[in-house]
Each structure stands twice: as C-alpha cells, then as structure tokens.
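Q: Convert this sequence to structure tokens.
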Amino acid sequence: MRILTALVFLALLSPAAAAPFKTKAPYALLIDATSGRTLFQKNANSSMAPASTTKILTAEIVFSRLAAGRLKLDDTFTISAHAATEGDAKSGGSSMFLKAGDRVSVDELLKGLLTDSGNDAAIAFSEGIAGSEKAFAVIMNAHARAIGMRRSHFTNPWGRTGNRVTPRDMARLAAYVIATYPQYYKYFSEPELSYGGIKQENRNPLLAYGADGLKTGHLDASGFGLVASAERGGHRLILVLNGLKSSAARASEGRRLLEYGYAAIGG
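A:
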C-alpha cells in the first residue's frame, strides 16, 4: 500500500501525468514563433479549405507592393460591377458594401478586407492589381511558393471553394507577414470598420483575449477556422484552427489553445 501511495504521489508531481491536450478542431497547429517550437499539432500537414483566411495572402501581396513603392495607401481602385455584386453580402458572404463605380483607397480596402473580411474588397484588389481574379491567382501561387507554402494552391483571392492549404502552410504565411511587414500588421487588429454609413466589428474573437491578428474564415465546406497570433512574455504564438462546427467553438478552442501554449512555455 505504501508503494502504491508513493507511486500515485509521484505521478501527480510528474508533468507526464497530465492528460495530453485535446481539441475539437479537426485541424490545429500551435507554434512558438519566437523559438520555432511546435507546441501542439493535429493534422497539421493535411489539406483543408482555408475559406477567408485566404485573405491573409491577398493582403500580403498588397503589403509587398506597398513596401516596394508600387502602391500607396492613398491610391484608389475603381470598384467593378463584378466586385460589387459577387462580393455582396446578399450572396451569403461577407462584404464592406462597396458600390460599382466607387473609387476606394488602398487603405480603406485593406480595412474592409481584414476587419470585416470583405469579399468585395478582395475582388477589388485582384482586379486593380492583376486585372482579374484568375490573373491574381497566378500571383498568389507565386507568392505562396516564395514564402514556402509547398502544399497550398489558390484559385481566388477571397476564399470561396477551390483554394487548398495546410495548417503548417498557413502558420508559415502568418509568420512571414508578421516578420516582413510590421508596419502593416496593424490592419489585422483594427477593432471595427465604418464604411458607407455601416459599422462592422472585427470578426477575430481572440482580439479580446490578447491576440493582435490575423483572420477568421468560414465556409460550409471548411467549417469555422482562424489563423491567430499573440505575444506575451517575449514569446509570439501562432495558432491555426479549422473545421469547427460554430463560431463559439472556434472562439473557445482558440482561447484554450493559446492558454495551453503559454502555460507550456511558462509565459
């Protein structure tokens, strides 16, 4: 009996005694970007639909042109009928409610793209930069390859069915954007967007829990997902989740994973 009691006591003291972390998300990856350590992974190299987290790559392309001087924040694009109607909220997606014929600045389009996940803003960028969504997809895939997203493929800038990624590729994209464009990373944490007399809040539920970016996504084919990042105690975590059944589950699992990550590194 004394031996058994001693073993139980040692087991309670041992970190190995803790139950392994589990998540409801079919896909998950949590990394300490500061050290490069993987803290948790579940189907991290499996193919999935990114939905609107695609817009992180769309934004990266815009950021790259801003950084190179090929675009300015006060440059304007004319909104096409295609962008205004295909990206309209009436079609079932998210929108910043652009109107055909409007001339909208790059600054405003970035806010619409990343704060309220405007499909119309994504299409406007693709047409303004490349002439069409199809031509912009060629640029997207070139940038993805250059970043090291080896298992990803994009056909459109806003996340409708057709794009395929892996959690690890999306974490790689997030890390690249954070490191390469600190001057533009703030667009991911804008609390709200007011455009055309309509106010919309940022859709990232983890901003209220210490995260400072990046993007949520949802399609019937993909479920609810997000790519998020937070920094605490000198460590930046990057989190990818996908396939959850509700926005509430996405928020709760995201919080759990961030807290797990910081506990794992002692932050």
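The chain has one domain: 25-264.
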